[in-house]
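hey can u check if this looks right to u? its 392 residues, i copy pasted from the old doc so theres a chance i mangled smth
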Amino acid sequence: MRGDDFVLNASDEFQELRSSVRELCKDFPAEYFRRMDERRSYPEEFVEALTKAGWLAALIPEEYGGSGLGLTEASVILEEINHSGGNSGACHGQMYNMATLLRHGSEQQKRAYLPKIANGELRLQSMAITEPTAGTDTAKITTTAAIKNGHYVINGQKVWTSRVQHSDLMILLARTSPLSEVERKTEGMSLFLVDLRQAIGKRLQVKPIANMVNHETNELFFDHLELPLESLIGEEGKGFKYTLDGLNAERALIAAECIGDGFWFIDKVTKYAKERIVFGRPIGQNQGVQFPIAKAFIKIEAANLMRYKACALFDAHKRCGAEANMALLLAAEASWEAANACLQFHGGFGFAAEYDVERKFRETRLYQVAPISTNLILSYVAEHVLGLPRSF
């Protein structure tokens, strides 16, 4: 049984979209992602299939060769991938990075890149924001972009920049004005579109970071990398403001992925609890098993509602920072609760790779920490929604 077979999701208006994505995912079952995880390989065939089907061009307007869908539909696509046993982390960057380019890129940039991204000729999977010494305090980044001899010259370092090795383009946030020279610390940062094909191995060095999940992420080193002036996205100095559009989209989309994970865990453990007989009765007959599963399911459904609210606000070009962050926190915690119940009630088999529980368990744990710590979401809501004094 799938999560959408339950009564609460019976009226979902996206059933046709869901069915189409599921059909594609049938060609890439859990065994495929298990094999990719064991080898720490990028699921190239899967991403290529998504691209050919047009799903990774969901947010690109039809005039540029895309599907012209909204963030809501994009979230459904990623939810279904995770619900089917896959991992959207290999490709979700192209969804939320698109929001930044669409809303703030020049018409020249859109016409130059969007059609090629839509048809799969180019990939825009990466965004470089985080730095080793700044972390979530984005205003403290030290990577600089200075105009010299008709180019922007980039110097600095980034960390936890994902999918660089499988992307052609990357959005980069750098300081164009020193922190000491701006009135507000969020000013003086700018966004750039970097052609990785021309940069990697020259003035951009990439150092892969091995980690606990099959997620390609890297440390980047910029040493006088020259970018054309037209690589600037929007106006100079407004990069942080532009970045928020991409980050709000990112949070809502990853919330959807967590919801997909949560439903996968619920489906998996519910089926197992009905079939597993111990002491002459199904373990699912015991309230000690039933209650944690039911509680996790309730929390997933609640998170689902906030996900849709955040996406609807984003699609309407309304403020959605609080809703996107709350959706991510609710969904990340709900999927983690479902993951714990699933692992616990599978007993020793939950740790066996062939059941896929331990893989999905590791994958969904990431979203308590990235793309933003749930503690920082709580701080954001306390300060910016409830008006409490700033805590840091």
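The CA atoms of residues 307 and 313 lie 10 Å apart.
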